[in-house]
Amino acid sequence: MRGVLATARQPPIIRRILLFTIAVSNPPTRFFTRRDLNSMEIAHPCLLFLGDVHDDLAAKTAYGIVDWRREWCLGQLRLPGCAADAKLPEMDIATARAAGARTMIIGVVNAGGVLPEHWVDTIVAALDVGMDVASGLHMRLGAIEAVAEAAAR
Questions:
Q1: pTM of the complete model
Q2: Which distant-in-sequence residues (6+ apart) come within 8 Å of 131 by Cβ?
Q3: Tens of pLDDT along 78-126?
Q4: Mean pLDDT score across all residues of the chain
């Protein structure tokens, strides 16, 4: 069974970036199991980030959250060219934060589970206004230097 790595003193990157798989640059000193992940809560209300995906299938994570926890969802953030629509109010990060959003959830998947480079600025902007960011992508957000730096601020 695969677990999640974190440091014992819970650095800001762990507090600020909520991931389904978490990585930090320091050597791990604590091992979290899937049971620990099941008790991890994502602060809500949430802003669902749909990026610029080209079809509804790629937004299956966001659609599932809307179906099962619509009351947690304040709105959606779509980049130009996004074909997916979770039928939530369109919001930018500042508007969502002002409305009380506590977490931006990357609600999409893509081939290889890699975060596109042009999404990084949006993630950093969410962290900069004090929101958490949650992702189920295979790529760990903490491995992206700009995201790690923003989370540590």
A1: 0.76
A2: 47, 93, 96, 97, 101, 102, 103, 104
A3: 999 999 999 999 999 999 999 999 999 999 988 778 889 999 999 999 9
A4: 79
| CB-based burial, 80-93: b 16+ in 10 Å, e otherwise | eebebebebeebeb
Q: Which of 26-40, 43-57, 65-79, 126-140 is predicted with the least confidence, judged by mean pLDDT?
A: 26-40
Task: Name the DSSP class of 21.
Answer: S
What is the C-alpha to C-alpha distance for residues 19 and 133, in angstroms, rounded to an integer? 8
The C-alpha atoms of residue 7 and residue 122 are separated, in whole angstroms, by 26
Rounded-to-integer distance, Cα 144 and Cα 146, Å: 6
Between CA 46 and CA 8 the distance in angstroms is 28
pLDDT number for residue 67: 93
Ranges assigned E (strand) in the chain? 4-6, 17-19, 30-32, 46-51, 73-78, 103-106, 132-135
Tokens of 29: 């000193």
